[in-house]
Amino acid sequence: MLGLPIADLTRAEVVDRLVAWAVSPKGPVTAFAVHIGGLSIARDKGFREAMEAADIAYADGVSAVLLARIAGAERIERSPTTDIGWELLRGFLEETGRPARVVAIGGVDGLSAAALRVLEGRGLAQGGIAFHGYHQDWDSVLCEVESHCPDVILVGLGVPLEMVWVQRNLAKLPAALVLTCGGWFGFVAGDEPRAPETLRRLGLEWLFRWRNQPRRLAGRYLRGLACLPLLMAKVLIDRIRGRLDG
Fold first, then answer.
1. Bridge partners, 125 (sequence order)
2. pTM
3. Which among 26, 83, 232, 245 is placed 20 to 30 Å from 208, CA to CA?
């Protein structure tokens, strides 16, 4: 879809795959979330190369699901990282009988550490280590990450930086599940509230966030709404051309 690989999987299938990789990773395994922010910059070279190299790219937002279905996906479901992050760690605990060793990277100083404390407090992580997302030199951070021997590495640097960062540093990352998570640390730490369950089920959590933080999010969401019709037309044209060529 738009030249980006997106897995045609249900939410449960995405979680099962992430858990399996976290339990028994064969080298660093990368999982990237896709939403309108990424789809709108699909032509960005660095972002595209990172997405193409990912072990899985899954639909985080309702726009990604809509566009994927126009492209021909049949089973795809919205798999918001704000929810499946919890499900991944619970699944790991069920499979191994122990909390995951987690590295959290991203956010302002102290945010990822606060999120990690919440995860540890709920028995879903243990012995974790956290880093803010504004390092000028990542080499020392990467050395600490490797020595920590994590099961899961959470990278919340925002799109497209988090995908590009993972791809750029992949050779220096240990055998673990590497999951991009956007702004999840803020939700986990309680800095940002979740939308009511009804809005979340409908894929309209973005409306709740927009209302709560209009100045910060207005530009992002307006750009997404503006580009969505164009992306829908492009995906539809690509599908029609594919059928004609086939």
1. 100
2. 0.91
3. 232
